[in-house]
Amino acid sequence: MEDIMEFIKTETFLLILVAIMTLLLIGFVVMVTRFSKLNKKYKNFMQKLGNGKNLEEDLETYMYKVNKVEQQNAKIENEIKNMDKNITKCIQKVGIVRYNAFENTGSNLSFALALLDKNNSGIVLNGIFSREMSNIYAKPVENGKSTYIFSEEETQALQKAME
Length: 163
Prior knowledge:
Number of helices: 4
Strand order of the largest sheet: 1-2-3-4
Distance between the termini: 103 Å
Strand content: 15-25%
Shape: rod-shaped
Oligomer: single chain
Largest sheet: 4 strands, antiparallel
Structural class: alpha+beta
């Protein structure tokens, strides 16, 4: 241990340390030079690849746009879900039957019209036409049934709509 301590105190050790420090300094300068050349090549490459523009900026712009589109898609998906919930209440099924309500009128001017949603709820309209007057009657429908009695034509219109 004393030998090492005495060697550290000698000029030879100091010269070795100076030589090592000089080599490290030269290595550091070489690395900095290589890094700056590589950085310059990288910038040139990015500009050539981006047709004179900075490709890195283009990629950042692209990523911003992608994120914006993803947010818009999430909003659209939520709107579609809300629409799907509401559309079940819209008229989706229609059935119509034309008929002669009275023997003395021709051309099947009377009608029975069923307008139903997805759950077979809605209304049945019955328009009765005669030479003297025309009347329209409405009957509510819940789940394919009504508390009112249907005529034969109204029943046919309801069945057509539910098919």
